[in-house]
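Incident log, structure service

09:12 report received: a user says their structure output differs between two submissions of the same chain.
09:20 pulled the input from the user's history:
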Amino acid sequence: MGIKNFLKRKKVEVSLKRYGIDALGAMAQGLFASLLIGTILDTIGKQFGIDVLVEIGAFASAVKGPAMAIAIGFALQCPPLVLFSLAAVGYASDSLGGAGGPLAVYFIAVIAGELGKLVSKETKIDIIVTPIVTIVSGAFLAIYTAPYIGQAAMATGEAIKWATELQPFLMGILVSVIVGIALTLPISSAAICAALGLTGLAGGAALAGCCANMVGFAVMSYRENKFGGLVAQGIGTSMLQMGNIVKNPKIWIPPIVASAITGPIATCLFKLEMNGAAVSSGMGTCGFVGQIGVYTGWMNDIANGVKASITTFDWAGLILISFILPAILTWIISIPCRRIGWIKQDDLKLDL
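09:34 re-ran on a clean worker, output below:
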């Protein structure tokens, strides 16, 4: 009972929600507020010749490690000294984790943050002890584990990308459906894609699945939620439907089936690749970040000589996979589901 009370007082909660949902979701927000925004500003700056935006974008992108770690600490309800100390932990973890830096930051920031919480305000020299424990424990873990975590994440991501290149139809379905489901669940598809470095054809399939869920739910529930619901889900998040899914899981059938169709179309027909920031693969149409990521990838490929130009076919594929096909397919699939009673009136109603 003593240990349990101590952990409760320190707000240390060992649970799937705290670590698998809250911390992972916060990590994605930290990544969004640094690397992703930095990439967008950099792209706008380069396209319109605004050098100051390119410079600002570089600043934002450079602090992704600290931003992710601090965001994780916030989700863990770390006290101020622990929270601020996590900046150093995030920098070390991301730097040493290489391409798998986000995953290294996630694991190490969680451990260092919890250790910092345990000693916080337990001594009269808290201002020294708490930062030292947080930074030293985090840096130690970063030095001795981050490279291996990064390599494991990179290897997993490369295996998925390799499998998608080898079997674009089958993997197009699997990646699209799985990442699309993750987007709607109260976990972070963006963080998962970032942690695994999911780009290329696999990233395109992931984008297709996310769009199928967001645009699909937005269009399918228009009769219940009107324009407000269309915007909230279409460029916000399909996670808003999670409460309704718990009540009636069958409402998820149309978007999932749509994602199983658009995924292989993206990989096999349009060869849609996400060569921008990996986190964009798991964003779908949220703020049109996924589409901006694809465009950024195109521009990078052109700059590197991999791609000659952006073609009409490229634009057609992006628009069809992101908006038109998810809307049409989900709506069509939802019709028989409504007629046979799998989806009833107000099953998709949101409290907006």
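09:41 both user submissions now match this output. Likely a transient worker issue. Closing.
09:42 reviewer note: The mean pLDDT is 92. Residues 2-154 form one domain.
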